[in-house]
Amino acid sequence: xxxxxxxxxxxxxxxxxxxxxxxxxxxxxxxxxxxxxxxxxxxxxxxxxxxxxxxxxxxxxxxxxxxxxxxxx
Amino acid sequence: xxxxxxxxxxxxxxxxxxxxxxxxxxxxxxxxxxxxxxxxxxxxxxxxxxxxxxxxxxxxxxxxxxxxxxxxxxxxxxxxxxxxxxxxxxxxxxxxxxxxxxxxxxxxxxxxxxxxxxxxxxxxxxxxxxxxxxxxxxxxxxxxxxxxxxxxxxxxxxxxxxxxxxxxxxxxxxxxxxxxxxxxxxxxxxxxxxxxxxxxxxxxxxxxxxxxxxxxxxxxxxxxxxxxxxxxxxxxxxxxxxxxxxxxxxxxxxxxxxxxxxxxxxxxxxxxxxxxxxxxxxxxxxxxxxxxxxxxxxxxxxxxxxxxxxxxxxxxxxxxxxxxxxxxxxxxxxxxxxxxxxxxxxxxxxxxxxxxxxxxxxxxxxxxxxxxxxxxxxxxxxxx
Lengths: 73, 384
Fold this sequence. Notes:
The complex is a heterodimer of chains A (73) and B (384). Chain A is α+β, with helices and mostly antiparallel strands.
């Protein structure tokens, strides 16, 4: 299982990537899977074992980003 | 000898890093930003993101998503003018504006949509702020001003115009095509709502790249709808920036070059580039002033100006002089009215225009000396 972070725009994905990497998180960027959204955008994928979701939420919301978190098998 | 003194049209040469960045993108990771999740597309998207962040820092834009990539300053100005003005609006511009502002407004005027007035400028090109203030009407929505004149080199007091706009609740649109990278710009301190820039002049990027920067609350209607890589399942074009104004594949080649160009000037120091170029320009002006046949336009030698000098030579046509300089001396300059009939009317050089020498950060004192001596030879030869 992975966490998938879905944003409104590519710009926000890039901004989130920069912020999360700066905060020491590990992540990668993938095309958003169809079952989550058919919008063709990008998402951030994070592994639960090294991700503190509360910290992720804090970093992103402090910087004005809105997003949804999904769990994907 | 080839001497390029047409940097106000487009700067040349470009810093080596610009060529390297463009080559690297094309050779190593030429993906389409925001269009796929694969490695090259993500690398390209990161470049675009970083470029927006750098531009936001350069102009003090509150959020880098409000930095829009366009083809040039003209497109950016058209986006702002046609995307913000509505039927019945009134606009004030300065008498130094480029056709990139005059023509879209004339078009909207002819369509019966907007009215505009032109604030007087003095013969050096400085806008008359009191006249500008007197033109404000209840329906005035926007003031548009060119920051630095491509004709006379005049740098307008944009902070004062910004204050006037703020005081009257009017949007302030600045055309920074000539000043970007040369004069520091702070959109917050100077109360600039929207700023149009180009990448290929004093930011030393390639031609075909520019953009629009705006404050948070600016809602520009898009003229171009299409693919953005986002919300692709919807028939409606997305409302959020930057996608809202960036339908279609953007010029990623240009973006990578622009980023390297800005990094180059930031590394050298914008202030230090400006100081060197201003000294070189002042020397050029002082030497030209010694030639009694030469009339120099724009601010005096001790005043702030762009590194460009517009002149006329007694009884000579600028285009003839430019042709002679090019064909006989290898000196490339631009004659004529520089797409700015209004500006030439302000400084008294319409319709013949001027001969414009414009310097860039790679212009050397030797090149300036050669241009001075060459012009002197042409004048002396023809007077014999």
